[in-house]
Amino acid sequence: MNNTHSPIRKRARLLSVGQTVVFAVSVWVLVAGPGCDAPSDLVLKQVTCQAADDGKAMEMKWTAVGSDVSEIDVFADGQSAGTLSQSDRSYKQTTPVKHLRIRGVGKGGLLGDDHFYGPDYTWSTSFIVSQPLTVYALGDSTNPDHKRHGFWISSTDSQAHGIAYDDSDRAAYTSYVIADAGDSLFLIAPDECTPMWAFNDNVSIAVSQDFAVLEVCPGSEYDYRPRTLLKAGQTYALWLKLVGDDWSPLGSTFVKAKVESINGKAVTMTFGWQTAPGLRWVTAPAE
Questions:
Q1: For residue 223, which of 206, 247, 235, 246 has the smallest C-alpha distance?
Q2: 8 A C-beta contact, residue 199 and residue 171
Q3: 119: pLDDT strictly greater than 60
Q4: 14, 7 in Cβ contact below 8 A?
């Protein structure tokens, strides 16, 4: 009765030790076994991103995927926008967002259901709002300082600048000119003024939305014109383009503008534009 080292207890201890050894071996196989190698080739190759569908969409494309890619994750403004198959080669975003991101996804692990992620491929909008700019109609000859009859939008300092009508050195940069007919003022394309300024076929159109509300400029099916009547408080969509009537993903820039005030021959305007060529999204600046 006082023997504390009975044969039964010794066997029990030996069995317990044996179980521990077997368990340790099992864990080693789970961590280091050949079925747990992580996929490594998760790249997307030659990724590009540009405007599509007459400027209402942004499309990301890639030519091929790494050998370990089983699917592709898409994110818009940080939220999941869906999962594409390994065979897909493009994704098209049709509603305005500030950021797009895609990545290749591979699966591995002992059961093949662990997820591994490749590098991120990202694109962000760059929407710019200018400081208010005052320009003067061509008929304003009463003040020698009122030579800013046109304006141009600069990608260098992200502002709109007035330009003198007779500044031939900068004529190629001119986006629009302010013209007058009686008491009415018009936004006109440079080549409507004089052949000297015929460097583009820019057009414009009045829109019903307020400047802060307008998210997408109208498409080419709308009646953009080279001459548009200006009214105080009105918002306009401006289509800056190279010579020609067709939309181009590389040769078009879209701008929204608001006439803050009209004082005689002087017009004060605010501009907001999308720096991505061809894209009609004119949304709030990217964070």
A1: 206
A2: yes
A3: yes
A4: no
Residues forming beta bridges with residue 161, ordered by sequence position = 152
CA distance 227 to 252: 18
Task: Measure the CA–CA gap between 106 and 39, rounded to whole angstroms.
Answer: 6
pLDDT surpasses 60 at 114: yes
- Fold entry, domain 44-124: Immunoglobulin-like (2.60.40)
Structure tokens at 24: 């340790």
**Pairwise CA distance, residues 141 & 169, whole Å:** 21
**0.85 surpassed by pTM:** no
